Amino acid sequence: MINRRHVLGALAGASLLPSRGSANVVYQRSEIREDLARRFTDVGTAGTFVGYKIDDYLVIASDKDRSGEAKLPASTFKIPNSIIALETGVVGDPDKDVFKWDGVTRSFEAWNRDHTLRSAIAASAVPVYQEIARRIGAERMQKYLDLFEYGNRDIGGGIDQFWLTGNLRIDPVQQVDFVDRLRRGSLPVSKRSQELVRDILPVTKSGDSIIRAKSGLLGAEIGKPSLGWMVGWAEKGSANTVFALNLDVREPHHIADRMKLTQQCLADIGAI
């Protein structure tokens, strides 16, 4: 197994994309596209987009700087949290195991009910995933973040807060790396856990393409959104493009702009 840096490429000066789980090294290309950066300024904010076109071994990014800046993952952490829940047996069946509503009324109506894992990730129900993290526990959580080489792997700040307000940080290039391994089923966990999480990821259709993605909204649970994420991959026929986007939430409309800009950037690079 190659012990490599968490980069997809030349965005940070690297030129190699080693394939995890094998001794192969894939030479890749990268591009910085200013037209992608303008997508963010056009809506009055700052942000970044990174897309990895699998078949072309091509990384396309809006910039060299913010694409490598690590930030709290917010609800994009529901992806690894779901994998770990399934792998540890905290969740056995994503459609049958039920997490009972705790009776606390929150501002997001969809959170105020019972959930399965599938419905919880669709509603981005923070309280459910906080309970999942508590059941997983710090020792097992740390073990799997180390196995995944997920971001800075730091779960300091509380077992049910580390991805919301705590110490965990991940940058867009690292998000693309992690999500691509899930897409390929090459994470160091069971094929079943990965298949189930791929299946429960929210799906958005765009023309003849499909986008499988998880959003994140830092500060949403306290009513003060400040940073938006969208990570996942697009499928256009047999072609796949893995991506990560984040933006500063300066106006309420920037929350909806996460998916809007994702689709625009994906279309700009021919991924959808």
Which short descriptors sum up this protein?
272 residues; alpha+beta; two-stranded antiparallel sheet; 32% helix
Describe it.
With 272 residues, the chain is an alpha+beta fold. It is built from 8 helices and 9 strands. It has helices spanning 34-42, 78-88, 117-123, 126-136, 138-148, 172-184, 191-200, 253-268, and strands at residues 16-18, 25-27, 29-32, 47-53, 58-61, 203-206, 209-218, 227-236, 239-248. A 7-stranded mixed β-sheet has the order 3-5-4-9-8-7-6, with helices on both faces. The protein has a two-stranded antiparallel ribbon with strand order 1-2. The model is unreliable at 1-9 and 13-25 (pLDDT under 50).
Number of helices: 8
Q: Could you give the order of strands across the largest sheet?
A: 3-5-4-9-8-7-6
Shape: globular
Termini separation comes to: 33 Å
> What proportion of the residues form beta strands (DSSP E)?
15-25%
Q: What is the share of helical residues?
A: 25-40%
The largest sheet is: 7 strands, mixed
The low-confidence runs, each spanning 5 or more residues with pLDDT under 50, are 1-9, 13-25
- What is the helix/strand order? EEEHEEHHHHHHEEEEH
User: Rg to the nearest angstrom?
Assistant: 18 Å
SS elements, strand count = 9
Look at the structure and give the mean pLDDT. Answer: 92
What structural class results from the helix and strand content? alpha+beta
